[in-house]
Design a protein that fits this description.
The chain is built from 16 helices and 18 strands. Helix 11 crosses helix 12.
């Protein structure tokens, strides 16, 4: 396929159209009417009479009149991962709620609807799972997490969580065992859905889909920092000077009322970089606020920083990486363009006290806000939760970035000036990371605010 986009006609509800757009957003496809389309995708409706058609299975009656959705072989496979080739050396997997299997796919020709489908298409492709329903399942589970008892206790106290000694907080978060590996083959279930759909489109259309997002580069890298304390602000200024030597822009998320800000330093962060809001007090209580009070708090954080840097603040990152539909909705009403509070995957999220993430390495649109996942486990998770050394953390990041590069995703890294990797004794390792990024001709180094614009 050339630079022209593949034209797709989608038959489904308006909300399902949005999901289809989201799943295929990293690829060069466009959506059009049936007369102009190269192929059709059908969901929860009777298949169209078109030569090239993809059927997404569902439990609706129209679908079940055309295909069998249960058999003995299917029952044997339930609960087992479905794998899909995502890159030249990458296979992703997902364990779906429902798996559809087919005995010849089409019912007997005594079924009039099935007969019409069989005659209409020589390249009819049936998926084995409901990618749209699975998408909603992942999104709901990620943005409506069940808080742990410890998290509820700490965030409901009348004092801020970070008034407790740091060593005590780290003790509660510490994992006793490390993951066998940090590869994403079984952690990118949302992206597995994308590639299941892409491979079906390529099979039906006999054309190769090409990525459209990174301005001709294979992948993107975003360097971000949360400046949580006054001490961290001092180290942040030194990190910025190191990054400037490599001509690498970075994003700095700053709480507006937790400590005394230095306007001159904050403005320097915004010069060849970006400043984003990191709540006001950084007390961990953002998720406990609702309605107008939540919007007012988010707006206050943004306006105070804008008054300092004299530029628009487009982005937000929540303390403790708190996230929910409620917060995203409030961010939109408070005038933000993007959020970057959801990890792709981390071994022990503070809210759930277990592995948690949104399972994608691409930007998304949720509630009208661009969501830019933190695709690499943050430094706190690797250093404080898993107990890795800075050398081990750097090695794992490099391995994960190579994985993400292979599937054309984005590497969003979060490094706190308050943690070990930013300490002076580890400056050589930080230089090594920056040098690797600056010397990679295949990478687009971006700021989250620019990535938000590009994704939209």
């Amino acid at each position: 396929m050339s630079g022209d986009s593949l034209r797709i006609a989608f038959q489904g509800s308006a909300s399902d159209v949005e999901v289809m757009h989201e799943l295929l957003s990293p690829w060069n496809v466009s959506f059009t009417n049936l007369d102009e389309a190269d192929l059709a995708i059908v969901y929860k409706e009777k298949p169209l009479k078109m030569e090239k058609t993809i059927i997404i299975p569902s439990d609706c009656s129209d679908f079940n009149t055309c295909v069998k959705n249960t058999n003995s072989e299917c029952k044997k496979r339930l609960g087992k991962p479905v794998s899909v080739v995502a890159g030249s050396k990458t296979i992703l997997s997902i364990t779906p709620q429902t798996l559809y299997c087919y005995e010849g796919s089409i019912r007997s020709k005594s079924d009039a609807a099935a007969s019409a489908v069989a005659e209409a298409s020589e390249s009819l492709v049936f998926l084995t799972l409901d990618v749209i329903n699975e998408y909603w399942k992942i999104l709901r589970e990620t943005l409506s997490p069940k808080p742990s008892k410890l998290y509820r206790l700490i965030t409901n106290l009348p004092i801020a969580y970070n008034l407790a000694p740091k060593h005590l907080r780290d003790w509660f978060m510490r994992e006793q065992s490390r993951p066998d590996d940090f590869l994403f083959c079984d952690k990118l279930s949302l992206d597995a859905l994308r590639f299941v759909l892409v491979r079906a489109i390529e099979k039906s259309s006999s054309k190769k889909l090409h990525g459209k997002m990174w301005n001709g580069k294979k992948h993107v890298f975003m360097l971000t920092h949360d400046v949580d304390t006054r001490e961290g602000l001092g180290r942040a200024k030194k990190l910025k000077k190191t990054e400037d030597r490599y001509d690498l822009p970075s994003a700095w998320y700053i709480p507006s009322k937790k400590y005394r800000l230095e306007p001159e330093a904050i403005r320097e962060f915004a010069d060849h970089g970006e400043v984003g809001a990191h709540d006001t007090k950084h007390d961990g209580k953002l998720g406990q606020i609702s309605g107008d009070k939540l919007i007012e708090r988010l707006l206050e954080a943004r306006k105070m920083l804008e008054g300092i840097i004299r530029k628009q603040v487009k982005g937000f990152r929540a303390p403790l990486l708190q996230h929910s539909f409620k917060i995203i909705h409030a961010l939109r009403n408070a005038g933000y363009a993007y959020d970057t509070s959801i990890p792709t995957w981390e071994p022990k999220h503070p809210e759930t006290m277990k592995a948690h993430g949104i399972a994608t390495v691409y930007p998304m649109t949720i509630e009208g806000i661009t969501e830019i996942p933190i695709t690499l486990p943050q430094d706190h998770q690797l250093l404080n939760v898993l107990g890795l050394s800075p050398e081990e953390a750097l090695k794992e990041w490099m391995t994960m970035m190579d994985f993400i590069k292979n599937i054309g995703g984005m590497s969003t890294i979060l490094i706190h000036p308050d943690h070990k990797l930013a300490f002076p004794e580890n400056s050589m390792m930080y230089d090594e990371l920056l040098n690797m990024i600056a010397s990679d001709s295949d990478v687009l180094v971006s700021l989250p605010m620019d990535m938000g614009d590009l994704a939209r």
